[in-house]
Amino acid sequence: QVQPQESGPGLVKPSQTLSLTCTVSGGSITTNYYYWSWIRQPPGKGLEWIGYIGYSGNTYYSPSLKSRTSISRDTSKNQFTLSLSSVTPEDTAMYYCASYYDLNFGSWGQGTQVTVSS
């Protein structure tokens, strides 16, 4: 069973770019029909889907975050990376990576807390 795991800095300054990496074990991120998502949950709020990178490398982003978001991958390391530019304190959240297959979210990482503060 695939298992994603997030990593990255826990503190980012306003206006900088947040970069998080998800390392996947137990399966390849190029496996057909798998999509690899980033999701976040701000304090006291619900889950917000950020975007995905698919098994073929295609990407799709939430319209509300599209202008600041980029998701890329390194297939040699079985990793995919989130970049969110021009962050503000409103981007403070727990960030998760997760697999998506057959119309369902599958395995989730444990999450990583990111705080935007000077």
Describe the structure.
The strands form two sheets. Strands 2, 4, 5, 6, 9, 10 and 11 form a seven-stranded mixed β-sheet that branches. A four-stranded antiparallel β-sheet has the order 1-3-8-7, with no helix packed on it. The chain is mainly β. It has strands at residues 3-7, 11-12, 18-25, 35-41, 48-54, 59-61, 69-74, 79-84, 93-101, 104-108, 112-116. Strand 4 (35-41) and strand 5 form a beta hairpin. The chain is globular, with a radius of gyration of 13 Å.
Secondary structure elements and pairings:
Blueprint: E1 3-7, E2 11-12, E3 18-25, E4 35-41, E5 48-54, E6 59-61, E7 69-74, E8 79-84, E9 93-101, E10 104-108, E11 112-116
Parallel strand pairs: 2-11
Antiparallel strand pairs: 1-3, 3-8, 4-5, 4-9, 5-6, 7-8, 9-10, 9-11
Characteristic terms for this protein:
118 residues, seven-stranded mixed β-sheet, 11 strands, mainly beta
Task: Provide a brief overview of the structure.
The chain is an all-beta fold and 118 residues long. It has strands at residues 3-7, 11-12, 18-25, 35-41, 48-54, 59-61, 69-74, 79-84, 93-101, 104-108, 112-116.
Shape: globular
- Unreliable residue stretches: none
Helix content: under 10%
Instruction: Please count the helical segments.
Output: 0
What about the largest sheet? Answer: 7 strands, mixed
- Using only C-alpha atoms, the radius of gyration works out to 13 Å
Which class best fits the helix and strand makeup?
mainly beta
Instruction: Please report the total strand number as a whole number.
Output: 11
Strand content: over 45%
Order of helices and strands: EEEEEEEEEEE
What's the rounded overall pLDDT mean? 97
Q: Distance N terminus to C terminus?
A: 39 Å
